[in-house]
Amino acid sequence: MAEGKLTRAFVTPEGVDLRLELGEAGQRAGAFLLDAAIIIGVLVAATLLLGLLGIGAIGAMGRGGAEMMAVIWLLGFFLLRNFYFVGFELSAAAATPGKRAMGLRVAARDGGRLRPAAIFARNAMRELEVFLPLSILPAPQGDGGVESWAILLGFIWAGIFVFFPLFNADRLRVGDLVGGTWVVRTPKQSLVRDMADDGAERLARYDFTQAQIDAYGAKELHVLEDVLRQRDRKTMRAVAARIARKIDWTHGAIDDDHDFLSAYYAALRKRLEARLLMGVRRRDKHDV
């Protein structure tokens, strides 16, 4: 598959060279606006609730009560906007509701596991990129307030970071550069039931133990599905060899890589679906 303008090689830990399509600037902006709308909606609801609960306290404490409520509001807004992005991107989907609506997700640029440190780093930078410069805009101007030049500087500062992805080939935010991440497109695809059924017919030839099946998780299942879709002989040979080493396969040589991978795909999918029914979700092979 030829690499397009926004298509990049992505080598997984299993040695599979996939092709990922980067999210376009318009898609990322749309995702951010959707997320911002959700955050504002939650903030408005929380503000109304806080106002109702705090009316008595403000009346009793006077100006001190009003200042305390303002501090609580600012702290709540800070926690909301940060934990919203971090929390959703740490989930199995690696995407906020806005990103999911636009068919996007966050991925590690080195092809490895998306680690919490990378998520925290990329989102911490958003404070410097957007929220910090924009926070001075509502402040009063002149005579103890914010000067007009400072507000203009805030606009310029925010504009530089907002448009930064347009001026690099990988459409990276500064937060992506710091965290070692990028945002890729994930078109919605349902797993093909025929593929699982086809593999189930081959399970009789292989006797996978539960420990061998539990060597991988949902992420590797999707990678294996991509391998089976592509049906590239060299790739299937390499992946079959890696899986055999990983699960310590000692039941003889693998005569047909496609049969072996199809059978393992069916066994792994059946196992993950059974665990999911019990409320256990295994994201990848590192998830215990």
TrEMBL record:
Annotated compartments: Membrane
Membrane topology: Multi-pass membrane protein
RDD domain segment(s): 24-179
Cited InterPro entries: RDD (IPR010432)
Source organism superkingdom: Bacteria
Xref: PANTHER family: SLR0254 PROTEIN
Name this protein carries in UniProt: RDD domain-containing protein
Native species: Caulobacter vibrioides (strain ATCC 19089 / CIP 103742 / CB 15) (Caulobacter crescentus)
